[in-house]
Structure formats: structure tokens, C-alpha cells
Amino acid sequence: MSLPGSEIDISALVPEHYAMYRPVIAEVLYHFLQRLAPHRLEEIGAEQSRLPPTADLPRRFTSLVRCCPTLHKLAQVMARDRRLDPLLRRRLQSLESMPTGPVQRSVRERLDAELDQFDRTGIRVSPHALAEASVALVVPFSHSEGRGDGPFEGVFKVLKPGIEQRLEEELAIWSDLGAYIDGRCADYGLPEIHYEETLTSVGRLLAGEVLLDREQAHMREAAVLYGGPSVVVPRILSFCTPRLTAMERVTGCKVTETGGLSVHRRRELADRIIASLVAGPLWRPEDPSLFHADPHAGNLFRRSDGALVILDWSLVGRLGKCEREQMVQMLLGALRLDQAAIARAIRALAISDVRETPLLDIVDKAAADLAAGRPPGFRWLLDLLDEVAIRAGARFDQSLVFYRKSILTLEGVLADIVPDDRLGQVMSMTGAVQVLGESPFRGWAPPESRAFGSHLSNLDLLRLCWALPEASLRLWSRWLDAGPSGAP
Hints:
This protein is 52% helix and 9% strand. By secondary structure, it is α+β, with helices and mostly antiparallel strands. The chain is globular and about 70 Å long.
């Protein structure tokens, strides 16, 4: 008997750029389905049978991933990737935050059981859910009694029935598949990047999606770090339990719904997203620094006054200060055209030995790009880290891996807001503002102290000032040697 869903040939959905990986992607999906419990396969088969015979491949694939929370989460991450077919992207975007209908009886019973712990006077729960995510439903409610600040509107986030068991089953499968892929890298021509370790770490992160009390703690922390007039984290309300989150209802639309906004307003919105979700966690002195690890478009809303609303804090990462310091050291090395310093920072950033010959080749190429006129900024840094991970076998702390993954997710979101790449410009601007803001406090700091949000010591800044004239001369020398075609 064929597996339900396995007859879907997803090869055509894989972008041409990754055509060489089509066989392994199809095989991994088959093995994933093969390991699901029989009743799960029956559910997938039933969903496929409900589709019309003329349903296209993207629709069938979307129906399949909706039945599996881990695939659903993957689809949300991929939904804004412009390398995908436009029809597939539109289908996947429907999974970012799905509209839904009447609240199922099982969900209503779970809500009632959790709310019985509180005084329910004045609480009126809507019979219709507002939205459906990968592991939870969002159900509106109103409180008419007022609790010191008058009546208010809120939403309950409640887990889907049986989602904990589904997620546990799928995460175990992915861990096994990671080991399988590690053993077949040579057969498929895959880079050896420790798939089992990566998938197991991602699994630990995803397991936190059903721990709603942990998300509530994240939201309280994020409200302090991120909240303000232009960035909003919904306020947690008192009707919370480990299986139910109550929060204020914040109305708005997805940040990617920009109809009617001028180009200037779109750029403002894109810059606010980058400053909050990418620059904010990087340019902080705290150790570690909290960041949102799942910033797909369904979790980012634009309020009517233009404020950015950041939803769903179940998946977060914490970027260590040592990682951020070494990233800044890489940028300093780039500004000084100091290849040895760049390589040294990469070795310090890695949590395993790095293959030396590929590392030096990669750093040489990155330095040549700088000499050819590429700005030594954040985009250059990310590309360099990607190359070192793939070609030199470098392994980085999982917090840095998740931070990179969140940036990849955001890049697709930002591309649907503005056509120009704002990431490098905003990161440079926010970094410069951070350094300038620290100036009044540097007079009392020890020379080697990096206890600043910029992660730069006074000695780092002095070395940079001393090295810049020499770096400029070396740069001009390279351009002159290269002739007119080598100048920027």
C-alpha cells in the first residue's frame, strides 16, 4: 500500500538552483511519512481525498504539511522565499496564520477546564476562532466587568487537541532522519554540516512551542526589551495557565500587506523590523541577548498607527555576548583589511576545529571582495559565516545558528515590503548610533573592557584608528595594481 501523500512528487517544487538536492528531499519526505503512526497516515489520506481531482501540486503539498506541525512550521519559514514558484509561495503563505471557523468542541472543553480556575464573571468567549497556527488556535474574548481599566478585548491562545503527541512523534522522526542524512552526504553531494545535531537542536527549540507558560515568560521579558511606542509586544493578562495564554488583542494586518503605503512608509517599516529583530539583539550589552526565533509574516503585524506588533514568542533564542564580540571582531578585521584577524575571530567563534586550508581560502576571497569595493558590513559577515560552515566544516553555537535562521526568514518578509536590500544599511546605522551613544561612558571604562552594546573596547577603537590609514593605502595599492577594471 502506498503511503498517503508519498505520491506527491515534490521535485517540481524545488527551485532550479537546488535541483541537485531534489532526490534527497523527496526521499527524506517519504521516510518521514513512512514513520508516522497509522492513524496519522489515515488523516493525511483523508485530507488528500477531500481535495478535488484537479487540485494542483502546490495545493496538495500545502494540505499535506498542514497535517504535520513540523512541516507546517517549515512551510511558514519558506513562505516568503522568492526562489520558490510564486503559486507555491502563495499557498504556503496561507499557512502563516490561517483563518478558521467555529471552535471545535474539544477546544471549547479545554478552554473551559483551564478557565474554571478563575473568576469568569464578565468573560465572554467567542464561538469562532480568530486564527489557526501550527500548534495552537487563537480565540477572541471580551471582558465586560473591567479590572481597573475598563472593559477590554483579548485573545486566548490554546493548544490544538493532541498537538503535544504529534509534535513529540515528529521530532523523534526528524532526529533519526538527521543521522540517516549524515550517513548519505557523499551519495547526495550534500555539504557535511552535522544534520543530526542540527535537527535535534531545532527539535528542542520546537518542543518549546507547546510550553505556553514558557512563552508567557518570554513575552514579559520581551515587553521590557522590545516594547515602546513604535514596537508592541502584546500584554499578558491574568487568565493564564501552563496550557492557556491570555493576552490583549492587538488589531492590525500582516506587515507584508502594504497596499496604500508610500515607498517611504514601507522603508520605515522595513527599517523598524530590522532594527528591532536583527540589530536589537546584536547591539545589546546583556549576556545572553533574547531574540525572536520565528519571525515569519504571520507573527509580524502592522498596527493602524504604523507600530510594529511582534506576536508568538514561543520560539526564542539567546545570543551569547562572546558570539557577538567575535562577530564584531570579524567586522573590525574587515575594516582593517586584516585577514589574520578575521580568521582568528572565526576560530574563536566556532565551537569545533575548522579546516585550516579552506578557511584561509575563504578569508582570502572575502578580503578580495572588500578590495574590489564590497562594503565590510553585516551582509558580508553573514555570507562569510555561511561559507565557513559549508566549506570549512565550522560548527557554531546553536544560538548563532538560530539567529542566522531568523534572519533568513526575515529576508523573505522584507523582500515583500521593499524591493531594495535594507539589512546592511540599517545594521551599519544602528551600530554607529550605538557606538556614539556609548561615548560619554567610555572615559571610566578599562581599556580592554567590552561591556558595551557595541562589544567594542576602547583599545579596539584605538587599534582601528591606527590601522585605518594603512588599510586605506593598501586598498588603493590593490586598486592601482588591478588597473581600471579592478577599481570600484
